[in-house]
TrEMBL record:
Its main location: membrane. Residues 1-23 form the signal peptide. This is Multidrug transporter. SUPFAM superfamilies: Outer membrane efflux proteins (OEP). InterPro entries: OMP_efflux (IPR003423), TolC-like (IPR051906). It comes from Aneurinibacillus danicus. It is found in: Cell outer membrane. Keywords: Cell outer membrane, Coiled coil, Membrane, Signal, Transmembrane, Transmembrane beta strand, Transport. GO terms for molecular function: efflux transmembrane transporter activity; porin activity. The lineage of its organism: Bacteria, Bacillati, Bacillota, Bacilli, Bacillales.
Length: 379
């Protein structure tokens, strides 16, 4: 079979008339206004209905607590006997319960803020991630198009079969579909971010807070110290402990011979059950932090490997450009090498996104490990 000279292929691939022209995708109008992560967070706080309701619940719980306390004439202690003792103790339990609910409402407000912080971080980073994927998909489509054109010249000269040509054409069609899917993913990511921060669905902020690599310099001893500190200061744990206090009141102020539907022994079991939930919440937070810690360490190792691979890809690109400039290489090889670099950069960026999300989850494990939901569900 006759082979086409390299310089002919190179020239042909550079001629505008040799490459079919496709209509440019209609890109959404992007606002010039930039949006940092902190700005996104402030918008989310200001627009969150659940957060506003949680704030109102604090005021409501306080009013209930004040009202309950105003009817107390004296404070009985220990178990009682008879209907009047039950009434007196019910008032005390009512105040204690109202006081606990007030405290829980304040902790719930902080947990709601933490959930928003985590949601905004994920939504913001997902837009950045989708945009990087779109750039990679565009580069992939460009490469696939050049490979298809190159294959068409080779097929015309008989150096490849029509089947091989059809394979390159299929790859190009697939790349176009992936390009369209990547553009759709960017739109979806923006819609989710806009929903979280309370912006209109048409808004397209320019996001400029890309995560940067910062070593996670913590050893396992520091991990265990962090676990003790975070679990001890967790609102999720505190809320579970409040439930124990409330259940303990039912035992400490139990009244016999007052038509109680809950036996004394059953109330004791309720205390143990609530205490078990405290331990369960602590265990989940501890396990979650350890899991996050090791995931971060593994991703940091992966990041270092990707940097080495990037250097290799960049060297391959450099050589492809040298060969092309010297007239012994073709543009398609340069584009392929550029795509390899772009793919590696996308992997690096995805790793940075994961690290950024995980480091926040390490500081607030209850939003990632379900600690908040566990505690609030026990109210």
């Amino acid at each position: 079979m006759k082979k086409l000279p390299v310089f002919v292929l190179s020239t042909a691939l550079l001629l505008p008339s040799a490459v079919p022209v496709y209509a440019a995708d209609k890109a959404p109008v992007v606002q010039s206004q930039t949006l940092t992560y902190e700005q996104a967070l402030e918008k989310a706080f200001a627009s969150s209905i659940p957060l506003k309701n949680a704030g109102d619940e604090i005021d409501r719980a306080f009013e209930v607590r004040q009202s309950a306390g105003s009817s107390i004439e004296y404070y009985p202690t220990g178990t009682g006997n008879g209907a009047q003792a039950a009434i007196d103790r019910a008032k005390i339990k009512g105040v204690a319960q109202a006081d606990a609910v007030w405290g829980i409402s304040k902790r719930q407000y902080e947990l709601e803020k933490d959930n928003i912080i985590y949601s905004v971080k994920n939504a913001y980073n997902n837009v950045l991630k989708a945009q990087k994927q779109q750039k990679l998909a565009d580069a992939s489509a460009k490469n696939a198009e050049l490979q298809k054109v190159l294959a068409s010249y080779k097929a015309a000269e008989g150096t490849i079969s029509l089947y091989e040509l059809s394979q390159e054409e299929a790859k190009f069609e697939s790349a176009l579909k992936q390009k369209a899917a990547a553009a759709k993913a960017v739109e979806d990511a923006y819609l989710k971010l806009n929903s979280v921060i309370g912006a209109s669905k048409e808004t397209r902020f320019v996001l400029n807070d890309e995560p940067q690599f910062k070593p996670f310099d913590k050893d396992e001893t520091e991990l265990e110290n962090d676990i003790v500190y975070i679990v001890s200061n967790s609102n999720a744990v505190a809320m579970a402990e409040d439930q124990v206090k409330l259940k303990r009141l039912d035992v400490d102020l139990y009244t016999y011979n007052a038509g109680n539907t809950t036996p004394y022994k059953a109330s004791e079991i309720d205390v143990r059950t609530a205490a078990n939930k405290v331990q369960d919440t602590k265990q989940k937070l501890s396990d979650g932090m350890r899991s996050i810690y090791y995931s971060i360490k593994q991703l940091e190792d992966q990041y270092k490997v990707l940097l080495i691979e990037k250097e290799k890809a960049e060297e391959t690109l450099k050589m492809a450009k040298v060969r092309y400039d010297a007239g012994v290489g073709i543009k398609a090889d340069v584009v392929t090498a550029e795509l390899a670099v772009a793919n590696n950069e996308k992997q690096i960026f995805d790793t940075l996104i994961q690290l950024d999300n995980l480091k926040l989850a390490y500081e607030k494990p209850w939003v990632a490990a379900g600690g908040a939901g566990t505690a609030s569900g026990s109210n």
